[in-house]
Structure formats: C-alpha cells, structure tokens
Amino acid sequence: MKTVHARGVSIALLLLCVVVLVLLFAGQAGPYASRSFKALWNLGHLFAFFLWTLLALQTFSRLAALRWPLRLLICVLAALVSGVLIEYLQVPLGRQAEVADVINDVLGSVLAFVVYTGIHRRTAVVPLIAWLFGVCLIIAWHNRTGIIHLYDDMMARQQFPVLLEFSMPVAITRIHGDAVAGLVHDNNETGLKLLHGTDRYSGFAMNYFPRDWRGYSSLQIRIVNPENRALDLTCRIHDIVHSDGDEEYSDRFNRSFRIVPGNNTITIPLDDVAAAPAGRRLDLAQVGGLGCFTVDLPETRELHLYSVQLL
C-alpha cells in the first residue's frame, strides 16, 4: 500500500514538474502585469526547483539514503548547475539571464531538502523548525523587493482612486524617473522631491496603478514649486494600445502647464485625455502610464509632488 501511495506521489510530482518546466520556457509575466503578479511569477523558479528536488529525493532511493550533509551538497550543486543551464537556454528566447533566478533555484532545492528530511527522516521537531525558519528567512530576504511590491500593490488598490500619495513611504516604489530625488516633509505632509535636470527631457513616470479610469471625470496632480520662479511642466498619458504601437507623440495625451511659485493643482479632464490621440480614442479602461517632464532646462529646478488622484 505504501508503495502504491509513493508511486502516486511521484507521478503527481512528475506531472507538476513538467507543467512548471513548460511555464519556465514558454510563459512569462506580460509587460502590463501588476508588480504583484510579476513578483509571484519570479518565484516560479523557487517553486520549480522545490518540486524537482522533491521528485528526485522521492524517486532515487540511493540519493535519499545518503547522509544529510552529502545529500544537501548534491541538491545544491544540482540546482546550481541546472539553474545556470536554464538561464543560458532562456537567452535565445528573448529572456535575460538573472543571477537572482539561480539563487531562487538553489533556495527552492534547499527548502525541498528540509521538507523531505523532516517528513521522511524523522528529524527532531526543534531542529526542523529552525532549518525551516532559517531557509524561509533567507528566501524572504532575497525576494524582499517583490514582497514590498506585493504590499504596496495591496495598498494602491485600497487607496484608489488616489493613484499616489506618500503617507506610506513605500509608495515611492510606484514612481520612477531621473527627477525622483527622495521624500520631503512640508507642513506636516510628506511629498516627493523632484529635481528636474538639464537633459532634453527630465521628469517622472508612473506605470503601476489600477488601469480602469472609466467613471471618473478628471486627473488631479498636486505640486508645490518651492522656488520663486515659474517653469513649464508637460504631462503625458498613454494607454496600452499606444505602448504596443509605435509610441508616436500624436498617439497620446500631452499638455504643458505653467507651474508658478507655491501651490499648484493640475486638473486634466479625462474627456480631453480620451480625445487626444490622432485618429482614435484613448482607452480609459486600459491606461498604460502617465508622467510629467520638463524640456531643455538651463539649470536644475526643484518641485515637490504631493498627490496624483482621479476625481
């Protein structure tokens, strides 16, 4: 009866391993997937090598019978060699080889070793828990960026229709660009310091937010100019159709605003956004990104961004 059960477990593991192998080479997170999905997708390497190592330990009795230090060493070396080979084979498919993936491969194999040893080798409970805790802690540390993104995506969904505000500092992970310079605190409110440089275009962009803006009338951006001089700031908004195409300037929303000293509130009617592309309407159900930038500044200028929200 035990043999039948063990064979059933091995077959189930084998089928899972084949599915995961196909996904590693044939599947990938799309460019418009949420950061949460991308983080979970990146853990696929860890899950794959966890399954493959379990299958190996379950199938090869000689490997399972080895003393644990040698068994662990073989698992780690096999994961390392296989992981490097997989990264190499993915390059011709248009993927980028990632050291982080190989590390997840090894961690997945070590986790499988610990789980298998605990179940089948009757290891004492306290050492097993210590091993599990240590391995899981290392996995969490190695994948900490993805964990932060998971948390912030959850916060972003709760805050919507506010797309960006900085009461939680982790929100800074939603925005990128050469002008992003860190958080700033003014009048009991936290904002983002922007240092627009002298490059042809200098600014910030956002690509991670709920993409369906239907049902709202306008986009509002709150900015403070701490200097005593005004400057022009251009805001752009595009949809996924634009990103999938030639990304022509005329195929997106573009508008310049005069940012005067002190408080500024930019209000952009979403009807104008939808009507902006030449020859079509921008899809407000699939907004791809937004950003603001300066053009050909003679010197670096400072702005403070406090919120971006739909009204």
Structure description:
A hairpin with a 2-residue loop joins strand 3 and strand 4. The protein is α+β, with helices and mostly antiparallel strands. Strands 1, 3, 4, 6, 9 and 11 form a six-stranded antiparallel sheet that branches. The protein has helices at about 1-25, 35-40, 45-60, 60-65, 70-90, 100-120, 125-140, 145-160, 240-245, 270-275; strands at about 160-165, 175, 180-185, 190-195, 200-205, 220-225, 230-240, 255-260, 260-270, 285-295, 300-310. It is elongated, with a radius of gyration of 25 Å.
In one word, what is the shape? elongated
Q: Kindly, what is the distance between the CA atoms of the first and last residues, rounded to a whole number of angstroms?
A: 65 Å
What's the main sheet like?
6 strands, antiparallel
Count the helices. How many? Answer: 10
**Poorly predicted runs:** none
Number of strands: 11
Overall radius of gyration: 25 Å
Order of helices and strands: HHHHHHHHEEEEEEEHEEHEE
If you average the pLDDT, what whole number results? 85
In percent terms, what proportion of residues is strand? 25-35%
| Number of self-contained structural domains | 2
Percent helix range: 40-55%
- What is the SS-derived class? alpha+beta
